[in-house]
Amino acid sequence: MKLIATRDGEQTELEIERAGSGYRMLINGRELHFDLVRANAQLNSIRFEDGTQYLFAHHAEGPSHTVSFADQAVHVQLFDPLALRSRKREDDDAAGGSVRALMPGRVVRLFKSEGDEVKKGDPLLILEAMKMENEISAPVAGTISKVFVTDGQTVEGGAELLLIETGA
Description:
Elements: E1 2-7, E2 10-19, E3 22-27, E4 30-38, E5 44-48, E6 53-61, E7 64-69, E8 72-79, H1 81-92, E9 97-100, E10 105-110, E11 117-118, E12 123-129, E13 132-137, E14 142-147, E15 154-155, E16 160-165
Antiparallel strand pairs: 1-2, 1-8, 2-3, 3-4, 4-5, 5-6, 6-7, 7-8, 9-16, 10-12, 10-15, 11-14, 12-13, 14-16
């Protein structure tokens, strides 16, 4: 899973995947192997390959994560790069029109139908891509004039999903 972490205005790309019974993380060109265990309802334990181990508390609210250990708390925002690209495209696309899949995937759930009015940012559908569920939102306010997909349908990258007509 690829993520973008933002801390104090600095962005870092992360890649995390299962590796045997633990995890492998690539961060800033450095590869780390670790095990992660829930110690109890409040605490987690992370143990790195070199034997270093830390107890920490984790609190998440949306993309905001706070990790507390010892006498220190780290605040970080985690984003799926696909969601960031989608959000940037939505911000750049003020003219409405076609909503397209950014990558191949499967439509998990449609939230809107033809004729529905939408506001900018309204959820349109869930697209599962690379084992991640991504909420696709309306880039502009308008009316759904055409829905090209159904629940469960597999789509290619760039496939047209919905068409939104704006009043402009």
